[in-house]
Amino acid sequence: MAPEIKREVKLEIVHVLFLDIVGYSKRLTDEQQALIDQLNQLVRESATFQKAEAADRLIKIPTGDGMALIFYNSPEQPMECALEITRELKWFPELAVRMGVHSGPVSAVTDLNERSNAAGMGINVAQRVMDCGDSGHILLSKRVAEDLQQYGRWRPYLHDLGEVEVKHGNRVHVFNFHTDGVGNPALPEKLRGSKNTESPLQSPPQTRPAQKIEPARERFAICVLPFANMSGDAEQEYFSDGISEDIITDLSKVSALHVVSRNTAFTFKGKPVDVRQVAAQLNVSHVLEGSVRKAGGRVRITAQLIDGSNDSHVWAERYDRDLKDIFALQDEISHAIVDALKVKLLPAEKEAIEK
Question: Which of 114, 182, 281, 336 has the least C-beta neighbours within 10 A?
């Protein structure tokens, strides 16, 4: 028998998003597979997921009825990812998903397929937090909430639910994240039946002052088509694609907008486009198209926002800028689109676009 090899266990603090499909076990086998495939696609289309994966700073753990996503940089990453997924889920009512977020220790392990993986309390607690929720809930552990409360863009939307007993008699202190059109404001069913949900330092959930409810905003759906590269240099394709992708990412941070994912929008790349047909096919109200011409240290971007119902221009503009101003220009275009649709940005959304 080969001698047992003892390895030093190295713990790292990570930031975990745990999510699963509510009622999954009650579905037929073919329905289960279809739901998981759809959820996997929505998760893969998240800009935060793609960025972390490209940087090799993401571990994905399938759980049968959902998954755990392990981020390494910031507790904002699982929250951003949760918001991006939640906005897309509104267009898939058959997918009932709940989410839990926690920051905690894990250790690197190698699974049976000799792939890098992770295990530890950080993942376990994230699952326990998620288990407290119902469909649509984005629940956070107290640890994550305390980290996010230091930032104005998160603080107003963190609602303290107190402590709740979970598996094996353990207790977790949970917060509910919800804002206009995102998350589930209802008290989770598990907490309604919990005897000791309040913590010593907090009032019971039912005695806390009601949160101010803002009037619902009109919601638009938009597809940002890949901007055409007019530079005459095929190597500049990445530049024009990057501009389109950044605008998609910025607009996705506006809760009053449903933005078609990058993967779907880029299926139209290099093809002649009938805007009405695209709008009907993707069920969107507006389409943004444009072009990029780069020469030396200058760039020209033209963009036009089109009403998909009648092919009329809602807004159009041409920008000539130095390349060093490209990021500010992308923010300017995103703000112009929001203004053209007469959408009022929440303070947190304005800050996120300009970040």
Answer: 114
Sort 78 into a burial class: Cβ within 10 Å, 0-12 / 13-18 / 19+: buried
Domain ends where: 168, 184, 207? 207
Q: Residues for the chain: how many in total?
A: 355
Q: How many domains does the chain have?
A: 2
In sequence order, what are the residues at sequence separation of 6 or more whose Cβ sits closer than 8 angstroms to the Cβ of residue 337? Answer: 222, 247, 251, 288, 305, 315
CATH at residue 154: 3.30.70.1230
On whether residue 64 sits in a domain, the answer given is yes
Residue pair 140/174 in contact (Cβ under 8 Å)? The answer is yes
Q: Which domain holds residue 189?
A: 11-207
Predicted TM-score (pTM) of the model is 0.56
121 lies in the same domain as 237:
no
Q: Is residue 290 within 8 Å of 303, Cβ to Cβ?
A: yes
Express each pLDDT in 168-226 by its tens digit.
778 899 999 998 778 999 999 888 765 444 443 343 343 333 333 333 344 578 899 99
What whole-number distance in Å separates Cα of residue 150 and Cα of residue 298? 39
335 and 266: one domain?
A: yes
pLDDT band (50, 70, 90) for residue 98: very high
The burial class, CB within 10 Å (0-12 / 13-18 / 19+), for 260 is buried
